[in-house]
Amino acid sequence: MTPRERVLAAFEHEPTDKVPIHHLGFSSQAASYIIGREAYVGGGIQQWREAKALWEGKDAHKKFLEKSLRDAFDVGRAVENDILRLHYWRLNEKPTLKIDEFTFLFGDPNGRYVIRRFVPSSELFNIVEEHPPRREMSVSARFREAKKQISEMEDWLQNYQPRREEFQEIRFLMEKYGKEYAIRINGGTIGIGLSTDDPIWLMAMVARPELAARYLDIQVEIALMQIRYFAEAGVKILFGGCDIASDESPCFPSRIFRRLVLPRLQRVVEECHKRDIYLLYGSDGNLWPIAADLFGRSGIDGYYEIDRSAGMDLHKLRRRFPNLVLIGNISSRTLHFGTRDDVIAEVLSCLKEAKRSRGIIVGVSNYIVPGTPKENIKALIETFYRYR
User: Fold this and answer.
1) The model's pTM
2) How many other CB atoms sit within 10 Å of the CB of residue 195?
3) I need a labelling partner for 79 at 20 to 30 A (CA). Which of 4, 143, 171, 257 fits?
4) How many Cβ atoms from other residues are within 10 Å of residue 82's Cβ?
5) What's 298's DSSP letter?
6) Structural domain of 29
7) Are 124 and 181 in the same domain?
8) Three-state DSSP class for 40?
């Protein structure tokens, strides 16, 4: 079977010639070890690289995009991923000021701006200063600002209409790679998460639910309009979701998820299915308190970022949700802190469940982070090669 055939068979719960693989993502350090050269993949490091390239000019930015695509493909092929991740983190905004090699200012130096600094050891490119400083604002002021932001977004949405040209790159990826591989395309996300949103929106879920509902409605309307163009581009699998849980529990009560998120997610699922697209939801953390709604009533087709260390387990999930496609369940924490034997045991346990149950795609559930021992990465790859 081709990788694409293998993945689509898994989504139909049909037998496959071998267990499908999808490792969620790679730090630049881990990927560089795998392909034997500096790899333009990763998280914050890719945002910093793009900021540098934009600062240096159009030719530099073009080279950045070309190398990023080539390296993402090469690392995916090297680890035998059946689902290719060809997009990593982006920050397509030219800096206003270069402070030093690792530090850039974005925005108006005399008005609203943020300063980001790259830390090579962690590969993060975080905001280290912002003006005006949001943390000094009162909660009530933050909510007033959020309400203003929502009104502006709603006004913008009145005139928003996706254009086919916006999806040109996706069409290119599907035409170039999509005949052989399943391609990971991000879209259809409905939710308010820990890392992707201002914390004020999580507070709004409980304290200002009408405001959170308006924010989620904007996500729904954008998703519904874009799904048509994803389908036209040949997209079969949409990777949606956001981090909505900690190791202990979701970040809001289950009744809030059921009232605010579930009906909106159902609308997006319905539109995806009309267009013959599978919709996945990904989140770290313990999702058991909302599992019946998220994995059952929502109608989503699959779940990725299955967080083993937070109690999410392939066997338990398969028993409770027999029709849900499951992707992942090898912990990046085990790769980072465990022994070689720990890694091998975890891979084998996931492969065992995948061979016993259909509809499972095995892989590392989150990034293979900087500092992960090379011998553990090697053990991961070799164990798949020998036993899948």
Assistant:
1) 0.95
2) 7
3) 171
4) 26
5) T
6) 3-43+50-92+138-387
7) no
8) coil
